[in-house]
User: Fold these one by one.
Assistant:
Number 1:
Amino acid sequence: MKRVREICLAPAALTLITLFATPVAILVVYTLLTRGAYGGVEHPYTLDNWGRLFDPLYLSILARSFSVAAVSTGLCLLLGFPLALFIARAGRRKNLYLSLVMLPFWTSLLVRTYAWMFLLRDTGLINTALQATGLIREPLPLLYNWWAVILGLVYGYLPFMVLPLFATLERMDPSLLEAAADLGSRPFDTLWRVILPLSAPGMRAGAILVFIPCLGAYLTPDLMGGGKTILIGTVIQNQFTNARDWPFGAALSLALMAAVMLLLWLQVRRKGETLL
Amino acid sequence: MADVLEIEGLTKHFPGHAALEDLTLGIAEGEFFSLLGPSGCGKTTTLRLIAGFETPTRGDIRLRGKSQNSLRPYERNVSTVFQSYALFPHLTVRENIEFGLRYRRKGNGAALVRQSIEMLELGGKEMRKPDELSGGEKQRVALARSLVIEPDVLLLDEPLSALDPNLRKQVRSELKALQRRVGITFVFITHDQEEALSMSDRIALLNHGRLEQLGTPHELYLAPRSRFAAAFLGPVNWIDHVGLRPEATRLLARPTEGLHSVAATIESSTFLGNCVHVEARTSGGTLVVAEVSRLNGKWQAGQPIHICWDPGDEIRLPPA
């Protein structure tokens, strides 16, 4: 029995070791080396790369990334909860609505991001239409700013909030809602006192699924922020390309990973339960 | 006394089937009233209509003379003890009990909570969450939560069915005593005739969405008005259109003055500890089950016997 289990687990373990653990180990080694003149790494060993992380410039970029991720997660929660509740109560239409939520995944995020840019840019659909109706004379600055980044992230990651929330809400025992009404609680009170507290596990799972990719997001901030809102993902990408500073890029990535792990660990420890 | 709850012509049709058809009955203040019937008879639908979870197709429900039809569940002064108890899993015992107080506060809420915790013997368990409670404790929390808001009528949806059988009998008498003490009208839903007989002041027997018979436990058991009612309340033998409960039979060697009797031959006897079930076939070919004391003798297959009974114990159905 034990042999069978080991054999079955081996492919997954092997994949994780070769594709995850090994690159991380290589990253750790890179952080301790010196940058090469044309990229890559050279001797001697040094701790300078870790020291540079505490440069106020990078700390502020990290803080900005956290706030962007937090605002996006909050907005996903605000938009996702009513949607998930609506779908959970849609009866026979449930599957239809769920597949509509998943529909964007049929095309790549890159294509969808470009679609947003065509909508939002100065000569885009929205500005052209508004100008044509005479409501505005100059195009509105809809793209290449902080809010455009938030819009892109919320749009991209909303399904990751909706799905776990839906799962929690759908599992909720309907007799609990009847019991609340039976004891005199009006619908809004029931939402506040019963439904919201009981959907906490779904909110937590959704928040984690949205927050982590938003924190390290590179594509959306780069395209929709137009390089004006520098986030940590862009900085890391830059170290490995234009700046040709692999050791520092490695240190930044590991620091980001460590921050995420710390957050998750605090979350698990506080609640004393499993993550998702 | 005036009826606290009046149900008139209550009808509920779901797409494809009629769950309840023209139910009319009144429930008196302080009464322990049972809705009894097999599954699908409409008893749960009736309860959900009273609570306001379903809208009637036709008919009226009046609470203290006031029609409830246009009221939402949270506007009705009734409360439900759910079959699964439906305790809020994220709240403690105390928070569960306090849940409805803010909407229907009458007098001192804290004192009411203390009182009901004491009455239902939940002292010391106030800070526990529902999943840390036993089945019996959960049931008592559900009762306390509903009683603390002092409803005009307490609706109980098969509250004993989730308990283990040993506990069930004990809880029956406790529930009855509790109802007497608080004086609140109980409407108790059950499919278990023993539960209904042992606790109720009156029973409404439902079948296929219609009221089959309404009466006291004695009336329903001893004077059922239909074969269905007779059989649902307990085992019954039919000898020439006369019903006879197994425990009303006597097995005698010869007919006796003052008793009705029929000649029969014993087919088998089963020892059940406190009594013996004897199966005998009459000369007319009917199989009769008699429940007799083990002290009354020994019964062997093939033995000729007379099945005798007091005429007063006969169940006579009204002509159809």
Number 2:
Amino acid sequence: MTTTAAAPAPIRPAGYALLRAGPAAFLIHRRAALVAALLTLVLAAGCVGYLSLGEHVVAPGEVIQVVRGRPSPDGLVVGALRLPRLCVGLLAGAAFGVAGALLQTVARNPLASPDIIGITQGASACTVAALTFGIGSYAVLPYLSVAGGLLAAALVYVFAWRGGLHATRFVLIGIGFAVALRSVTQLFLTKGDYLVAQKAQVWMVGSLNGRGWAEAVPLAWALLVLVPCVLWAARAQRTVSMDDDTATALGVRLGRTRLGLATLGVLLAALATGATGPVDFVALLAPQIARRLTRTAQIPLLCSALLGACVVVLGDLPARMLFAPTELPVGVLTAAIGAPYLIHLLVRGHSGRRRAAGGSA
Amino acid sequence: MSVAPVGSPRAPLTRRRLCRTAAAVLALLLAVALSLAVGNRAIAPREVLDALFHGGDTEAAQIVLFLRLPRTLVGLLVGAALALAGTAMQGLTRNPIADPGVLGISQGASAAVVLAIAFAGVHSLSGYVGVAFVGAALAAVFVYAVAARGRGGATPVKLALAGAAINALLVAVTMAVLTTRAAALDEFRFWQVGSLTGRDAAVALRIWPFLMVGAVLVIAVARGLDALALGEDVAKGLGQKVATVRIVGGLGAALLTGAGVAAAGPVAFVGLAAPHLARALVGSDHRWVLPTAALIGPVMVLVADTVGRILYPPSEVPAGVLTALIGVPFLVTLVRRKAVAA
């Protein structure tokens, strides 16, 4: 829709900059680009802070030495303990952010986040079931959690379908399934022996505690595979946020695009849950804050990813340090921030309102 | 909605209601019998009766009298409390998905108990009940205040979401306390999922007065709840003091939830499903619905507890887990009915 390369004077909507590279042309939202740059800076500073702070404080200069692979006396603490944990946090946070953005776009409702409508709970139920039955290898677990997330999403979709998909019905049934799946998880925990239960319990609250390369590497590969899909999604997102009549008139296959975007969102959320456990509210918070910062009509994907990573990394730092020898799960901290925000959304009465699908040329 | 058609004689209606209430009583007796007889060591019904009426020193009698009987009593009380609380909440909010668990009120009670144990040094059961009551009342007021603001008032979806938000927040608080205070974690893990494991007669003895007061308060406003079902204006027109009904009923519901949670932790969805089953049986008159719900709630809790005992023999599945699994189909059916989602 925007690549009118042959046109002599392309129409440029206000607030956008036009970027040309050969035959291709891109519209870039100026404010969104600025916000993304600033978020990248914050995230970089947060990462350095994350690596240097802790029970054993390492100077930032030393941290950079370690990250660049130079030998250093702090190599163990920074390189072997904090760096993999940071990577898991970054990747999972970004995945949660994009997943939330996609699902919220499709449902046109900020409440359709994977952790409210039962997708992360489905992923955890499947993973805990696998742990209980003795499948504990890190190679298989991500697939299982993805399967669980997809299954939960399909169930919610089927039960919420009644001659069309109503947003509130979808959310309510999602909440119900979230509760049921949490119970299923509990059921498997009771079945498993004590050691399994303890292992699963740590995993279940959404924590970066003890995460290492074993979780980071598969997650990174999986996300890398999904990057082209996310690029497609960034384009498709614009059409989906139009109202049904406009999209149909323009010849957009709304149903398929929506299904694709939702599937991608579910995949991302389930992958992230497989690595960190259900970190509550990141998927709800990140896209909403991102949209308020950039003031775009659609939820910006890149900024959502950056913000998701920021929330998880900056949330895990106090979670690690607040009660020094004991570590809080990061999920507790994100829930403590996210729940009041959800209440704020409800009080403001934004929950049901559809945003105007502006911003098109 | 299932009021008898105009002009139909009253007597058959009352007879039908009596029949169905009797059936509920029968189901409850059956559930109690199962709860006493079934478990790690199955005990024949005759032995159970023998132990109940004549006592005895046999192993079976000891198990029935000192392990299963107290536990069954607590299950009865908790089930009745949550069912009554759920019925009152559904009537007061005119909202079919109101339930102490869904609205985060049980979680309020359990978070208050955990906080009181960790920081205020409350260690007695009556202390728990008091604290749980305060927590339940605060959570109830807060959830309703959040949901009632904004457009459209307290619609089902806003109540459920406000409840979900409060739930998440309170779970985070509870988790933070339990993670940092290992001692509290060990003793009170069951407060995250409701369970009857290891409850003794003292629990039942301590909570029943609270329960009675709560039940009396809720039953006292039964007529007011009927009037409220017709809408606030009609209720006023019929001469009901709407504010009084709301305050008395709300107090009763909070008291019942607090007592139930203090005894067993948050047992999910009993307060949601029991009133709907009761309405399906005896119609929408709250003077009939409340007692019937109080019969059906314990059936749910006791059956869930009994099934939990025999599912994975050495370990026990908490009753709250199974009631959630029974209750969710109810929620889904309710939401799929047109009137709610609109």
Number 3:
Amino acid sequence: MNLDSARQAFAAEVAELLQSMEDALLALEQDPADPEALNAVFRAMHTIKGTAGVFGYEPIVAFTHAVEGLMEQVRAGEIKLTAELIAALLECRDHTDRLVSACLAADSPEAELAPDLVGAGAGLLARLAQGRPSSASSPPVQSKHLPIGRDLWMISLRFTCDAFRHGIDPLSFLRYLASLGELVHVTVRLDPEAGCTPGFDPETCYLQFGIGFRGDVDKPRLASVFEFADQDCEIRILEPDSAHAKYLELLDTLPAEQVGCIGELLVRIGALTQAELERALAIQSAEGGQRRIGEILVDQGSIKPAVVEQAARVQAAARNRVQEEARFIRVDAQRLGHLIDLIGELVTSSAAIRVMAKRAGIEALDEVVDGVDYLVSEIRDQALQLRMVPIGDTFSRFKRVVRDAAQELGKQIELVINGAETELDKTVVEKMVDPLTHLIRNAIDHGIEPPHVRIAQGKPSQGTIALTAYHDSGHIVIEIADDGAGLNTAKIRAKAEALGLVRPDETLAREEILNLIFVPGLSTKEQATNLSGRGVGMDVVKRNIEALRGTIELASEPGQGTRFTIALPLTLAIIDGFMVGAGDGQYVIPLAQVVECVELQPEQGSGRHGHYVNLRGEVMPFIRLIELFGPGRSLSSQRRESLVVVRFGHHKIALVVDALYGELQAVIKPLGKVFEQLKGIAGATILGTGEIALILDVAELAAIATEQPLMTRGVGAAV
Amino acid sequence: MNAAGKDTLSDRLILAGELTIYTVSETFKRVQDYLNRPPPYILDLSGITELDGAGLQLLLWLRDMICARGDSLRLAGQSPTVSEIFALLQLGSSFGDSGGCA
């Protein structure tokens, strides 16, 4: 690995860690005591510090070290995590991000950082220091005053009957123990089972001790005190809570390769002695291995349940990590793109082979071609799958956007995420970040009202923005819904009229007015804020989405909220298509959007002025492809026509075609600039015969079909 | 406190010298005999020179037996050896003047 790729790996690792730190901090805002989240923040800083140290990026090391130190105190319960502190930590996260970028951009690790960056770091550290209790500078109040039990080792000793006969004097152990520290409290009793019976034998040992011990020792050291009596005494040593915290930390920092069996893990960090482990293992094998070792250890009183749980988690995490390291490889996105391009060519070539095979009329060849076709489609699916990523990673970054913006505006907003596991082509995901950010900022800024307004309207003071993703007929649908004020149609219309987009006497449906917000230059907020821009946004959002062959729809009810629905094709490259013919042209419809094909009865299609067809009681608009794309050719009424019902979201329309050719794999080739204005066409594909077929854009067709009365018929005339 | 004035030397169980695993069987007999007489029960340990776990256990047993009857055991004297061990085991109060039934 050369240094550059190492740096890239570092940058990627930092990005992941900072993301998890951010998630954890946001979780801590809800529950400041969440131990997993605390650990995640600590680990992020700790790991970044370590790696930055390898590269010699001193400023990163210094800064993350300070934050790590603070987190350590937070975890130990010495510092309370306040909202201010979390806010400061979030900024520390951002600062770390900037530091890393600056260090990576610099020519050498020793390069001087920009003074403002240095200043910002110092300022943040000063803020963190404010969060510390004042005693942090003076030595902390010593543990003498801590509540009993918190810092005490609890030791229980039960001697066996023969202890005296074996020459064991229990008192000598206690004397020795007292020399190691302080016996804070001691109880001594005779085994209640045997002690008070007349059959008392003075030479049999019934002694039992309970000891609260305070001293600077670890568990193995304590166990060694009683080592000599191991055969004659049942010893239980429970660590104090403070040691407990130390174990949890040790568990956290243990390198993955050292994580073995849970028992060994606990012995390694000193939470368990070898003897205790052996005893538990003996019990386990005696019981026939029915119980887990951790359970036995807890029962046996050797260890606290929380430590076992944490150890189990560390063990599982280490296993996962090892597995993941083996399971995942990072691949250059360009290589993947190239692979997919090649597969596109392969699809086209294999279609050409099919055509040639048909012409040759060799039956055996057909079979081979079928096999190849199947493999090609499998390869295509697998290759496209490689680029699929869950959209949740993108969604979760909006938590921060919502949090920051809501605080700035003094609003209370909760972001609800649904369908985070929905997968989408990575290139599409990346291009969706900006539009989504814009829509969410809009919802925060214009949608959700301030708390007092909401309460006055009888809504909960906390607004909700719901971000939802799901799959629907070959598309991924992303919804951004808020329960805010909704769009003010009157204002939009007034603005549109002022801009000359709409004539004052024009009647517009509510939906049409709402859609005006996608027109360039229209912003409904009189006062532009620095959050959601200056009204240059929505048209750009729409353009970005359309560039991905997606669509955006909008619904809004006054007082109820606004919902944007974005539908995007799953992938940009290759689709399963259904080919139809109309006139001389061949057209491909994305297969996922085809609902059914039926024969068109002559009387159904005859109504040339009403563009609606009644299909088994369901009325839907229809489009004659030949009318839309080939007006030059006269209609031959004797031809049998078919109806292809296609679906887009909740729209259903019918396409009237002359011929049904069947399914094929279509590699989408973009049309050149000349055809950019062409409505209803998403691209073109090359057929096996070398001919070109146009790929229909069902969403646009649906729009054309529903707007038909208003539409100017010259749109498709270019073809 | 009924004890201080009334008790006579014969009420006392005086244990002295070595009270260890080596002597505990012998002492046990004396302790059993002592338990067969009526209260008060007063234990004098001022002559103890050595005390080990077995000896301590016998003392605890004696205390427990008396307590189980609803009587109490009073400690009339303890040697430095005994004091040291009682202090170590924080037994002072349960062997104290009040009889120390737990």
Number 4:
Amino acid sequence: MTTQLTPAVTPPARRTAARRLTSRVGRVRELGIVVALALVVLPTAIVNPRFVQPQSLRDLLLNASIVALLAVGQTLVVITRNVDLSVGSVLGLSAFLTAQHFADNPGTPLLLGIGFGVAVGLACGFLNGLLVALGNVPSLVVTLGTLYVFRGIDYALAQGEQINAANLPDALLDLGSSRVLGVPVLVLVAVVVIVVAGVYLRSYRSGRELYAIGSNPEAATLAGIPVAKRTLTTFVLSGLIAGLAGALWVARYGTVDAAAGTGLELQVVAAVVVGGVAIFGGSGTVTGAALGALLLGTITSCLVVLQIPAFWQQAIAGALLLSAITVDRLLALRLAKALRTSEGTSHA
Amino acid sequence: MNTRLVLALVMSGAVALTACGGTTKDSAGDQTGGATNAAKGDPSAALKEGLKITFLPKQVNNPYFTVAQKGSEQAGTAIKAEVKATGPSDAAASSQVTYINTAAQQKQDALVISANDANAVAPALKTARSQGLKVVTFDSDAAPDARDVFVNQARSNDIAAVQVKLMAEAIGASGEIAILSATPNATNQNAWIEVMKTELAKPEYAGMKLVETAYGNDDDQTSFQKTQGLLQAHPNLKGIISPTTVGVAAAARYLSSSEYKGKVKVTGLGTPNQMRKFVQDGTAGSFALWDPSKLGQLATYAAAALASGQITGAEGEKFKAGELGEYTVGAKGEVVLGPPTVFNKDNIDQFDF
């Protein structure tokens, strides 16, 4: 499945074993999140069976879908050993401009209006990418700056105004609540994006190169990978997805002001980390990140359903996050050890 | 506005005119004047021109405060005062402190503030007042000894009572209800919730039971999740009262797009513009609010009256608030705007804010 990366070289048997081990552990990692999900959902369902009714399950998926989308974009960036902290602000800017566009031009076709939001996100992502890839400024600093810049532009454009559901076309609001075969449309959109990004990362040369860049940027440069170009692409994609998420945010919540999505970036980074994407790059999958988003959203919802006092909910959610990361770290250490043993002979 | 100024001058009388004449830009003169009047209010004192007033909302870019700010600026224009709006972008407890200090350093005449936290801002407000700044709180009060006057949108009792009454009408005064509030430490929401509880203890509401109070942190996503949680945790829930504009819109949007639409009623405090859609589609029958623009206006007139020495914040003092009419300072320096307005499908289209 990864033949494109080393098409000419026949990998030695030991390497193949190592790779098989890595991918198996990767799969185990995703399985781990599924198990964690079950551990959260089942007890809650036993206490309150309504938690697993169709409406509730749809809500769990819907709540996670926007964060999951952002987590997919974030995964692309994090894999290359970068981070995009501006996604919450990009979402906010895109959401407000999309809503304003629909409110000012009531006749706008649905897809055109959403495309407008996507374009806003793309422009923001392009700016991030240029500064990181060509300016050689650490992405943490760049996107921390643009986090405030984009939000500031949002505030300046909004002037404290709010776009309300009554000003938005019904087609857009229906998109936020309609279902196909019982599955909410927003969830389907998220799934499509996850699948496309997943296939790209797994089976395309440029997708594989993102892992190489994250594993060892210097080696990637020496190997002839266009590091700057690939980095730029990941930020553009992250911005584009955040723009799409902004348009969907409008469809879901119906009320938008300049504060939409404030602080969302931390949830996204948390989802990515919980989803098993290494924060220092080089490994992880979009499926894992999306499952991470689902897990975090589910934890929040089940704490509410279990009637945990409001004052404790944040602390408990944080503790669960820490335990998830601890499990991830333990698994990573075990994997490293196993790899060292299996590769030991070839390097010794 | 010239007519209003003339009116003010005529009312203030010739003596006050000579005493305070020509104080337009001389801030040093202003402050001495203020200091001498500090002991007790002089209702015949002229309203000073060129007062510098800082308008400090809980957070900028909150639509509710934007409307209040417009009212404040309108009042500022009417009395020839310079109203400057500033504020934090988040509603955290201590985020207003630096803005209060800045207002004091800039030698503003008055500060009109909606406190994010009653106690967190108190020390800064006290320091500012000791430097001659007059402090008017509106919407959400600070500790009473940290401000001169509190302009209350409506009596806590009235606000809480009207929401319970609307809910009782919506669900036939029987069944389980829940409250979806803002942050757990929001001053006014907590005060209203306390009154709602006493209100619900009355015999006419005996059939209604408050089962839970959830906190949506005035955030769409959290409010959505908390609404879902309430519905799942309480299968017999009949209604949700949300005494916050963000929460009520989020709860209404969620209900309108879920299978609970029509089965669970929502009411609370919301603006007509954000609730219009949900009143039309039947998710919300009626809800209440005061006019935030008038609240901003009244707070600014109160600030100007304080800075001009017309009032000091003592009970029984009266001041004119332009087109809003005359107001009297009540106990503990409180001025009340008036009873809340109830909006429903019959009158909602008459309002645009």
